[in-house]
Amino acid sequence: MPKILGLNLLGVLAGSVAFYLVGWLWYGVIFMDAWMAAMGVTEADMEAGGNHAIWMAGGFVITVLQVIGIGLVLKWKGVSSLSDAVKTVLILWFFIALPFAHYGYLYGMAHSQTLLVVDASHLLVGWVVSAVALSLIK
């Protein structure tokens, strides 16, 4: 199987697709109304937002970069089991993603706890499913 930075390309793609699907569920289905309200966005704003395909493609690139980063950390740490991969990514999320998500809360005009929870939980679940995919497809 082809490799990217020493990572199984199929594992990276599977983790990226799984993470991207989590994002679709989070922002497009489960928390759509809460997220839109917290952002102050209406349906009309969404429709007037331009070429959504470009934004979605950009979002997928960001997702792939995160999955590669997670994969590299797991590789460098020598993680070999699924449980160790999940533990590692939970620690990474707590010390990197969660503090990063707080920037929007602290510096955003609304200081929306809803937005913080939606964004941080999306990263939590996305990072865990990525770690699982990377662990299962080596």
In the predicted model, the low-confidence regions spanning at least 5 consecutive residues are none
Side-by-side strand order of the widest sheet = 1-2
First-residue to last-residue Cα separation: 9 Å
Radius of gyration from CA coordinates: 16 Å
The helix fraction, in percent, is over 70%
How many domains, as an integer? Answer: 1
Helix- and strand-based class?
Answer: mainly alpha
Any descriptors?
mainly alpha; globular; two-stranded antiparallel ribbon; 138 residues
Can you walk me through this structure?
With 138 residues, the protein is an all-alpha fold. It has one domain. It has six helices and two strands; from the N terminus they run ββαααααα. A two-stranded antiparallel sheet has the order 1-2. Helix 1 crosses helix 4.
Topology readout:
Elements: E1 3-4, E2 7-8, H1 9-30, H2 32-39, H3 43-47, H4 52-77, H5 82-107, H6 113-136
Antiparallel strand pairs: 1-2
Helix pairs in contact: 1-4, 1-6, 2-6, 4-6, 5-6
